[in-house]
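Minutes, methods subgroup
Present: GH (chair), OT, SY

1. OT presented the first of two proteins processed in the latest run. Sequence and structure tokens recorded below as shown on screen.
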Amino acid sequence: TPFGDLTVNNWLVWDKTSREAVAFDTGADCTRLLNHLRNNQLRLKAILLTHADGDHIWGNPLLQNAEIIMTAACDEEGREMKAAAMAMLGKAGQALERFGRGNIKKIGNYFHNMVAPYDFRGIVVTGSTRTCAGETTLEVGGREVRLIEVGPAHTRGDLLVYVPDAKTIFCGDIIFSGGTPVLWAGPVENWLAALEMILDMDVETVIAGHGPVD
């Protein structure tokens, strides 16, 4: 997954017998996720959102008839975010790219290219149908999936999603593969505690919010 645009890691976990599935984050564009659901004849039970940044939640309206689960803080923060602000960021970046010099020009180029592939017009923020707190367990066709609240850290309402039988954890932007995560909310102690928790778990695969799988 390249840095420099709004592409995030979107994943599905499903049960082969029941074809029941859950999705982790929906991104700014969940077209590939939708295609995968259709091509494999999967029934989407729930969308699990790791945090409220638009590049992780704005695909929600395209996935109909599924429960949307996130922390209460994530729900609150997500409803405050405006897609128009991201569009303005792209325009500001384009201006800096055109008229700036040196590092200012580079920053403008970054923001312009990050937003350029997406059309944010008409986005309607879709909030939760259910919130979770602390640690919550749900089943997907008999498979256990654990939701673990670790925010505020990267954002106000960060969530880890752990699939024990696959020894896999989905970390959202608590982890960036190849980069240092941004602490929009903090404190840093919560972020470090989340990392320590991951290290202590029976995990073989760590999936970051952005970048390759480790």
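2. SY then presented the second protein from the same run.
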Amino acid sequence: EAVAIQADQWTEEVRQVRIFGQPMRFSSLVHPLFTDQTRYWCFACKKPVVLIGDGCVCGSNDVELYCHVEEFHVEPNWPTVFILDMHPRKPHMGAFVQVAPNDDLFQAAEIVLAADPKDFKEACDEIETSLMLHVSQRLCDPNMGASPSGAKRGITWQEEFDRAGMFCDLADDSDVGRKRVDDYLKVDPATRSPRITIHPRCTETIRQFKRFQWDDFSQKTERDQKQKAKDKYSDFPALYRYLLNSDPSFHFLHR
């Protein structure tokens, strides 16, 4: 009981380190609510909690087990959005995210591949065929997508992938999407589940969400926190930002 009471007074970052064993160096996570381990969510407190008996320290028994990483059956009739992050010097990365009838998101697969656009497209085709994914929309990083590919003068990355048969719209990279990702990571009181579920085979997505941090100053300084995230481990969290900035809707994508 004493542990639960103390944990309730800590910030989510401190709770992740001291209760759930998250490494100290990852205490400034951009999306601290993300977890690949089963936790308890209190609907009264609207946050992860440590239980006292069968309830929360606040006295509420309205708690639910949750986890963002779970196996699920891919639904061929659900529309899928493919989000792409191109890179000139490291592998291209992409996520296949299904949109459920209630607009919840289920990531069925990922791809991390250093290849030219044509070979990358063929690898994506194999994933889509094997999982029977119906891709309704493709989005890509607007900054890299509109920049020269380097392979041919005056040709952008978006145009290179267009020529390979992978037509992508330039996404909105507004930081508003980061807050939307946090909202989707919360447990929905209607479904009693998070609005983002990632299949365990998406190992790089899970790895990056667990390590994506704010670019804070050293703790020895008294300067204000930065409002900028580090570039390291940012690829797949950024893909979710692009996706949620597009306000994915099952009915719109299904049509």
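Chair's summary of item 2: The longest strand covers residues 105-113.
Next meeting: continue with the remaining queue.
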